[in-house]
Structure formats: C-alpha cells, structure tokens
Write a structure and sequence with these properties.
Blueprint lengths: L1 H19 L13 E4 L1 H15 L4 H4 L9 H18 L3 H8 L20 H5 L5 H43 L5 E4 L14 E2 L1 H10 L8 H7 L5
Parallel strand pairs: 1-2, 1-3
Helix pairs in contact: 2-7, 2-8, 4-7, 7-9
Length: about 230
C-alpha cells in the first residue's frame, strides 16, 4: 500500500508543477497586451478643443480695457483716496499724535480700539464719495470678471479630465488589455518592442474625429464650482 502511494505521487508531480507555474511562464498563457499613455498630453489636446468650442464671452476677452484701466492701477487709486479720506476723519487727539511724528497704527488700520480716534460719522460718508464709489464699482467688476474667468478655466480642466478617461478607454478596448499612465520613471527592462506608447495614436484619433465638447452655461457653472 505504501509503495502505491509513492508511485501515485511520482506520477502527479509533473502535473502539479505545471499547475503552480506563473501564467507568464506557462506555454499556454497569452502575452498581455499593454501600453503606456501620457494622460497630460491627452488632456491638453482635449482642453484646447474645448476652449475652441466654448470661447469666453466678449466682455471677458476684452480684459482691462472694458473696465477703464488695469486692476492694479484702480486698486492703488482706491487705496490712496480711501487713506486720504480717513485722514480727514481723524480726531484732534490723533492729529496731535501724528503731528508729533509718533507712529500710530490706527492711522491706517481699521480696528475696534481705533474707533475713538476717528469721527465715525465722517467715516460713514467715505463710501458716498463719488470718486471712491466709482473706483469701488470698477474694482468689484474686475473681481467678478476674474472669478468668472477662473470658473471657466476650471470647467475646461474638469471636462478635459473626464473626456480623457473616456477617449483612452475607447481607444484601448480593441487594442490592449492594460493601459498604464506614463510617468517620468522609465521602464527598467523590457524586451524589444514590448512597451507601446499609445499617446500619439490617441491624439491622432482626436484630430481625425473631433469630439463635441460644447458646454451649456449650466454645465460650465457646475464643472467650475470647485473654485468656490
């Protein structure tokens, strides 16, 4: 009986050895078709196409000219006028201190402890100054336009990322079993022709078959909401 078990083990050993071999070393195993893709290049190409299909409105493309000067110039003018207006609202006590050449933080700062050193009724009238009111209006317009522009840019970035995943997957379905994102770290070893870079092939598909990347205003607003 013991001899029979030994004979059975000897007969089964080759089969067990073949069973436990890695699929990569098995003669029946098919080679895995895989490729690398530079996703950043794909996203940049899609973003460029999306910008063409979703141009900025004219009032956003015009830049500073549409608001009468640059944002920096307007901010400087506004700060200068507001500082001068606050100086006119100083109490006599603060004027004496400043006249002595003493440094007083309240001269420029807006803090609760500074309230007694300023004529509050005078301060309340500063926003009503025609020049200050006009400059504040322009500065607000700059800020709103800047936020709208950045929201548009973010919407384009989000759309490009979303579409890149779809485009890469569609291209790979009939060609590869695995697609890896290309990085700056090179492959240490691979047989000749084993590593396929599919980036250019995907870019060519994008050029040959342009995608519809047009967004509605609601979609731009939704995709760009991350910056708020």
């Amino acid at each position: 009986m013991h001899k029979a078990w030994v004979l059975l083990a000897v007969l089964l050993l080759p089969a067990c050895k073949e069973h436990w071999l890695s699929p990569a070393t098995s003669k029946e195993a098919a080679a895995v078709r895989w490729a690398v893709v530079d996703r950043r290049d794909i996203e940049e190409a899609l973003a460029a196409a999306a910008r063409e299909q979703n141009p900025l409105p004219g009032e956003l493309r015009d830049g500073d000219a549409s608001s009468g000067g640059s944002r920096e110039v307007i901010a400087e003018q506004l700060a200068r006028l507001e500082s001068a207006a606050r100086s006119r609202c100083m109490t006599e006590e603060l004027r004496v201190i400043v006249g002595r050449g003493q440094s007083v933080a309240c001269e420029h700062m807006r803090a609760p402890e500074c309230d007694r050193l300023f004529d509050q009724a005078c301060l309340a009238k500063i926003p009503d100054d025609p020049q200050i009111a006009e400059l504040r209006k322009k500065h607000k317009a700059f800020s709103e336009r800047s936020r709208t522009k950045e929201r548009y840019r973010e919407a384009i970035r989000v759309l490009a990322r979303e579409q890149a995943k779809i485009v890469i997957a569609d291209y790979a379905k009939s060609r590869f079993d695995l697609v890896i994102e290309k990085t700056n770290v090179p492959v240490i070893y691979a047989k000749d022709g084993m590593v396929t870079d599919a980036t250019e092939g995907i870019l060519e598909e994008i050029r040959k078959k342009p995608l519809n990347l047009k967004m509605t205003e609601e979609q731009v607003w939704a995709k760009g909401e991350r910056i708020y």
